[in-house]
Amino acid sequence: MIERSIAPAFKQVEHIELIKAEQYSLDNGVNLFVINAGTQDLVRVELLFNNVNWNLSRPLQAYSVNSMLVEGTSKYTALEIAERVDYYGAFLQTDFNFDNSAVTLYTLTKHLRSTLAVVKDVVTDSVFPEEELETFKRNQKQKLSVNLEKNDYISRRVFNQALFGNTIYGYSAGFEDYDKLQRDDLVSYFNLAYRPNNCTIVVSGKVDDGTISIINEFFGRDWDKGVDLNANLFSFTVKDGTEHYVERPEALQSAIRIGKISVTRNHPDFPALQVLNTVLGGYFGSRLMANIREDKGYTYGIGSALISLQNAGYFFIASEVGAQVCSSAVAEIEKEINLLRTELIQPDELALVKNYMLGSFLGGLENAFSHADKFKNIYFSGLDYDYYTRYIQTVKSVTAEQLMELANFYLDFNSCEKVIVGKK
Length: 424
Known about the structure:
Distance between the termini: 57 Å
CATH class of the largest domain: Alpha Beta
Shape: globular
Radius of gyration: 24 Å
Mean pLDDT: 95
Low-confidence stretches: none
Strand order of the largest sheet: 1-2-6-3-5-4
CATH topology of the largest domain: Cytochrome Bc1 Complex, Chain A, domain 1
Number of helices: 15
Order of helices and strands: EEEHHEEHHHHHEHEEHHEEHHHHHE
Helix content: 40-55%
CATH architecture of the largest domain: 2-Layer Sandwich
Number of strands: 11
Structural class: alpha+beta
């Protein structure tokens, strides 16, 4: 009989193995990376395009083009694109982040040729119909109107603007920016950015030579290379730690966002900083959760994160708390940061965090798609798989003394931008 009143013996994760991407070059020079794993005849094909030619006078170009790719080509309407993909039981989506725009296809291998024909049409022949553009503008302005009623959304906009200014990372789009969208501008950006010289393809799943051959057939030939592009290059420095207060007298809750410019994934301190962040607010058992949620009852949730972008890294803490306890919550956040700077993390807590992080890393490698995501993290940071070896080793070996030293160097509350939306 199993004695269920006794917890299983603790065992640290010893070995984590990643499925490494194999690199190929299509006939036109496009880099193709393959993560071949899994037993099901399913593949995910991702076409990734760098966001380029940032222009403050047209801040929504990259986002709008990516959002509208599936709204019509010279051959198919938006409805016909959706129907053709659905017919094969496939799924086609577009995704946008600050650095990249993506077109992603999930399909059964046997339908790859048929579904890639649709994808090829979308990324080479989108026409951005005027009627669909007007619908897009109306929908986006309505979404913005709804979001501007949310304190958390406003705090994120104010925070990003404070850190990154009028760059693609920090610009806060307004209604007038959607009004200024013109079809000709979208076509111009599409013809510039959605080209082989700005494209990386990542395919994951059950991949064989036939799969690679079909991808080369569609995207390695008969696709004009395009002209030279201006990469989005920005530089940022830590600010003076300004407080940004947006008063909303009727608010029952106040949104808090506190943080600063930090390092990117390719900095040697990044893995150890992730350990430090996890202790502070990076998981459900973190200090911020234990204090501000469990002990004080100020919020349902609070967390912190260390984010790596291509041109910047940043650290932030975010929560929504009762308006009447907002100042107290900020004071408790400051206290928890200062404790990391003045007191060593105890061995039991540090061991728990390390085990959590290693277990989460291992648990995040459940299929070929998640291995592909791990590859993209390093590829777009200019790193190789040695990064993960260093990351795992750092998580296992970093000491409380080293973490205190990092806290004193990186976590100065006074230099953090502090955003409060609601009531203090």
